[in-house]
Amino acid sequence: MVNQALYVAVVLIWGSTWIAVKYQVGVVAPEVSVALRFLLAAAMLMAWCGVRRLPMRFTGRQHLFMAAQGLGLFCINYIPMYWAAQWLTSGLLAVAFSCVIVFNLFLGAVFLGHRIEPRVALGAAIGLAGIALVFWPELRGVDLTDRVTLGVALALVGTLAASGGMMISSRNQKAGLPVLQTNAFGMLYGGVATALYVTLAPGIDWAWDGRTEYAAALVYLALFGSVLGFGFYLTLLGRIGPARASYASVLFPVIALGISTVLEGYHWPPVAVAGMALVLVGNVLVLTRGRVKLPLPAAVVAPAVAKQGDQG
Which one of 16, 223, 291, 302 is least enclosed by Cβ atoms within 10 Å? Predict the structure, then answer.
């Protein structure tokens, strides 16, 4: 029940962050928003650790692994994704980031020694095919110009960085590092690294958007999207493994479209409804345990086939 509660919380929180990110676009450079988000989130977590008097002394080696997790999850993954958003639709971004489940399957096997379960691989393939159908109206009109191709490459680089950060988080938890303090320092390192990039990179100015919507979105993204969202997700990752936990990345774009239905009048075409059904089937396969009589090569090849069909 704890795992189910964590999973539902992650899907709902991260499914709602998409609309918050939209309120941050227009005035402030995206890199500035990312830096402010994680510096604020780090301050919140540090304060909470202080209130609870949690131990905050760690070795230099432990700080190195915290910094590596922070760079992967709270810096390097976000900057390329925001760059990619200049040329890609939200659908292409969603499909690209959903590929994190494929990266987690393979990186978990290579670096953590996790076995690739046919059931999980099949569920991932079905889920990716489903998310491609959900966003098919956007995907079918894509013209693979140089900029779009670059955008897809950047989105995949950001997704790979996120997956790498998840692997390091899994390693850190196995090494006994607590999730709360590790996230606090990781977000601090990620936020500082992004702030240094903003300061040193040409053409990026520290600016502030005076709209109430921007400030509210920043607080929501810092508290819910970062402190709670990553806290729940990385705890779940430590409990059920990167491959299963990462299926949330397939579900939360669907939740985002559900919110868009209410707030922005999004209408579900039949192909999106069919895609939603596939996403749910994949979810059942990934999160439940049992035997599936499927040769491993087919389960591994299937995500690539689904990916080729949808192509953030």
Answer: 291
